[in-house]
Amino acid sequence: MNLFRLAGDVSHLLAIIILLLKIWRTRSCAGISGKSQILFALVFTTRYLDLLTTFISFYNTTMKVIYIGCSYATVWMIYAKFKATYDSNHDTFRMEFLVIPIAALSLLVNHDFAPLEILWTFSIYLESVAILPQLFMVSKTGEAETITSHYLFALGLYRALYLMNWIWRFFAEGFFDLIAIVAGLVQTILYCDFFYLYITKVLKGKKLSLPA
Amino acid sequence: HDLTAKHDEL
């Protein structure tokens, strides 16, 4: 464990909690892409099956359980509890255009053709594009609530911190995992224009609005 | 190093 990875995990946990509280407290999931949340639940489910097979540490197990629990709770709130506030007209990204090619890619490019490893690879690839329906929805509505932009910032920051963690681990431990690094780069790059808008607008107290 | 041994990151 190093500082970058810990900061990344904290940022990721913060993002998940911000979203959960936003929906629960405002009793509304307006502006939130349910599809992205389904994809995140799928990412955690396929990545954390090793909860059943290997114990790494108390921290590792606890965080995985929290991530899985919160992501399913978020999906449940969007599609059941506060379904009336779900904006399905603007959440139109075709998830199958992401899941199917990535499933194929994870069968072709992986470290080991074993079930758990293929699922882990699928999860890493899927996570890199899972935010697309949400970014697509923000661009369609042309704006995002401030709390949603904080959620997106924390979520984007987490993988950027992981990139720093992998640089650190490369020099400190000689460890590197090219699949995770390439997917993490793609994932972070997808947030770049959002990061620019967040820093130039939201941090100046303005509302996040995309140029129409 | 065997990468698949265990993915110790979240």
From TrEMBL, chain A:
Membrane-related topology note: Multi-pass membrane protein
Keywords recorded for this protein, A-Z: Cytoplasmic vesicle, Endoplasmic reticulum, ER-Golgi transport, Membrane, Protein transport, Receptor, Transmembrane, Transmembrane helix, Transport
GO BP term (any one): vesicle-mediated transport
Lineage of source species: Eukaryota, Metazoa, Chordata, Craniata, Vertebrata
Pfam families reported for this sequence: ER_lumen_recept
Record protein name field: ER lumen protein-retaining receptor
InterPro entries assigned to the protein according to its UniProt record, in alphabetical order: ER_ret_rcpt
Organism the protein comes from: Eptatretus burgeri
Domain of life per record: Eukaryota
Single GO term (MF): ER retention sequence binding
Record-annotated membrane-spanning stretches: 65-82, 119-138, 150-168, 174-199
GO cellular component: COPI-coated vesicle membrane; endoplasmic reticulum membrane; Golgi membrane
Compartments it resides in: Cytoplasmic vesicle, COPI-coated vesicle membrane; Endoplasmic reticulum membrane; Golgi apparatus membrane
Phosphoprotein keyword on record: no
Keyword Zinc-finger: no
Membership in a protein family: Belongs to the ERD2 family.
